[in-house]
């Protein structure tokens, strides 16, 4: 299962859990990708904005993430740097609780579900764990998030996966386009462009 290159720009309307919009730009960089995005939203009565730049290698594993945010808590900036073998520095400090994480998952982003889907390259019927460095939208705190993806069937050119996150007692079926970007994230976001 290989994906085609992502479009130059993609956008999602965030709905139900939050109301907002996300816009992402993709460009080739050093054999991998640079992803620059922004989400503005209101969730549980709190308005926030998160801007991010992700540097990905050719396999879509995150090498670096620079995340800035604004909310009623003020302005924040968090930088995550991969130091290899699933190990991380967060704001320059070693974060051993993130050992084994290959991806950064932004609470504010529907796009970041594309990272493990690309990297894992699962065959139909296969399941894999994909723990991630999870960055909160408000305050930009970073925690380990256990999650898994199971490749279901293809629906024409689109691919379907079962997603599960035990920490949030959440699971759903995600639909991805031929470039591996989520089209429908139930209760979270729907692709607009």
Tell me the radius of gyration. Answer: 15 Å
What summary fits the major beta sheet? Answer: 14 strands, antiparallel
Q: What is the overall shape?
A: globular
Strand content: over 45%
- Uncertain segments are none
Number of helices: 1
Average pLDDT over all residues? 96
- Number-wise, the strands total 17
Strand order of the largest sheet: 8-7-6-5-4-3-2-1-17-16-15-14-13-10
Structural class: mainly beta
Helical amount: under 10%
Order of helices and strands: EEEEEEEEEHEEEEEEEE
C-alpha end-to-end distance: 23 Å
Count of discrete structural domains: 1
Explain the overall architecture:
This protein is mostly beta strands. It has one domain (9-191). The protein is 4% helix and 58% strand. It has one helix at 114-120; strands spanning 9-14, 19-29, 32-43, 46-56, 62-71, 74-84, 87-90, 93-94, 103-106, 127-129, 132-135, 142-145, 148-155, 158-165, 170-176, 182-185, 189-191. The strands form two sheets. Strands 8-7-6-5-4-3-2-1-17-16-15-14-13-10 form a 14-stranded antiparallel sheet, with helices on one face. Strands 9-11-12 form a three-stranded mixed sheet, with no helix packed on it. A hairpin with a 2-residue loop joins β7 and β8 (93-94). The two termini are 23 Å apart. 36% of the residues are buried. The mean pLDDT is 96.
